[in-house]
Design goal:
- The protein is mainly β.
- It has 3 domains: 144 residues, no CATH class; 78 residues, OB fold (Dihydrolipoamide Acetyltransferase, E2P) (Beta Barrel), CATH 2.40.50; 98 residues, Beta Barrel (Lipocalin), CATH 2.40.128.280.
- The protein is 10% helix and 52% strand.
- The chain has 3 helices and 24 strands.
- The strands form 5 sheets. An 8-stranded antiparallel β-barrel has the order 17-18-19-20-21-22-23-24.
- 31% of the residues are buried.
- The N terminus is likely disordered.
Length: 333
């Protein structure tokens, strides 16, 4: 019995010992001691497609294709420093960062690279299947230690909402942090049960999110979401809840804004002038100790402004613009 055959058997035993899936699906299970970066290729409704990268920690599984499975064969690629991937010379397009690519031809011409994938045989008419990554991997002798792998991204952010899109575009959900916007796309890489949980989240609530980031713009990143947990209400949550709705300036009735979740739409004389995101903070730039503070930043330029919240109620909002020291009084419409 060859070494690779023995390794396949051991990998299968480890996978069978992992907790079972909640639903029929294609699960990739990491039975190595190192976090692995994986991509998947498959035939979808629009033809061949590839998705990646999932980062799977040791001892964990990731659902990469929701079930029940429609095809017998799926295709895998693993790219992790210190490991040799054994492919079956089946080509798909990939990108260096998080990607969702339709089509498996003209990769370079479209700005991608073409890489070889390994075939996963799920068996005839299988509604779900688990595949051990060690089946296609050999550890290099000089591979880096597992503790040298970069940690997953963690942050607290306010849930803004989800937006449904029609193909070829992907639906997405938005979270707002202090100076950063995170987009989670429904592109097959987020487990179906986690995606459904996002749809039920209340707008404006703080959520602890973990995953992996891919920067898109200066203030916007795609987040490959691993977990999302609603946090207990605190003072910042209650203040943000009070700010929801339409407000107008006591000094200039034409000066108005509308707060929805962590998004502020500024309006003057009936015309929208800018869109900002907001955060309620205990400190803002060099200011601290006299908060709470309202931090706003422009959706396009990322320009941030700091206000001290003097008072806020169901009827009035008093802000102090810290750069100039002037006070701004708003009343709810």
């Amino acid at each position: 019995m060859g070494f690779r055959t023995v390794r396949r058997i051991l990998g299968l035993l480890i996978v069978l010992s992992l907790p079972p899936s909640a639903q029929a699906a294609l699960d990739l299970c990491n039975d190595t001691e190192t976090e692995q970066a994986v991509a998947i290729g498959y035939k979808g409704p629009q033809g061949w497609a590839s998705r990646g990268w999932w980062r799977i920690t040791p001892g964990q599984c990731a659902t990469v294709v929701p079930g029940p499975l429609l095809h017998r064969f799926y295709y895998l690629r693993v790219e992790t420093e210190g490991w040799t991937f054994h492919d079956d010379k089946l080509a798909f397009c990939v990108a260096d960062r998080i990607f969702a690519i339709d089509g498996d031809t003209n990769c370079a011409r479209r700005g991608y690279r073409q890489e070889a994938f390994a075939r996963i045989d799920t068996g005839p008419d299988a509604p779900g299947y688990r595949h051990a990554l060690s089946t296609n991997l050999t550890a290099d002798e000089d591979r880096p230690a597992a503790q040298d792998m970069p940690p997953a991204f963690q942050a607290e952010a306010v849930f803004q909402g989800c937006q449904a899109e029609n193909p070829p575009y992907h639906s997405f959900c938005t979270f707002i942090g202090a100076g950063q916007r995170y987009l989670i796309y429904d592109d097959g890489r987020v487990p179906a049960d986690l995606w459904q949980r996002l749809q039920a989240l209340p707008q404006g609530r703080r959520v602890a999110v973990t995953g992996y980031l891919e920067p898109l713009f200066d203030t916007t990143s795609a987040l490959l979401l691993h977990s999302a947990e609603v946090l207990a209400l605190n003072r910042a949550d209650r203040i943000l809840a009070l700010l929801q709705g339409d407000w107008s300036s006591a000094d200039d009735p034409d000066d108005r804004f509308r707060m929805s979740g962590a998004e502020r739409v500024n309006v003057y004389a009936g015309a929208e002038t800018s869109v900002e995101y907001v955060a309620i903070l205990d400190h803002c730039d060099e200011h601290s100790g006299q908060g709470p503070y309202l931090f706003t930043w422009d959706i396009n330029g990322g320009t941030g402004l700091c206000y001290r919240i003097g008072r806020v109620s169901q009827h009035e909002l008093l802000l102090q613009y810290l750069s100039q020291g002037n006070t701004l009084l708003y009343r709810r419409e």
